[in-house]
Design a protein that fits this description.
It is built from three helices and five strands, in the order βββααββα. It has about 80 residues and is α+β, with helices and mostly antiparallel strands. Strands 2-1-5 form a three-stranded antiparallel sheet, with helices on one face. Strand 1 and strand 2 form a beta hairpin. Helix 1 packs antiparallel against helix 2. The longest helix has 13 residues. The radius of gyration is 17 Å and the shape is rod-shaped.
Length: about 80
């Protein structure tokens, strides 16, 4: 998502943050011990990245230039 977004959970307005699921430490251990599981785990982590709110880490974000985004902005300003 490009531009500003608003979080429907916490109301934060700003840029998104990319969140990678899983653990880097588990990935390193799997690569050291077992190459194939390490590869699978790395691929899963790469494809499971998602945009989340930079404040609360929830994926409940919508662009501010949508009708629902504008509604939430007006509600937060009151």
């Amino acid at each position: 998502m490009k531009g500003e977004v608003i979080c429907t959970t916490c109301g934060h307005v700003g840029k998104v943050k990319k969140l990678t699921k899983g653990s880097i430490w588990i990935e390193i251990i799997l690569w050291i011990c077992f190459i194939f599981p390490g590869l699978l785990y790395s691929l899963w982590r790469l494809i499971s990245k998602q945009d989340v709110c930079s404040q609360c880490n929830n994926p409940t974000i919508i662009p501010v230039n949508t009708p629902k985004g504008q509604e939430l902005l007006k509600k937060d300003k009151k």
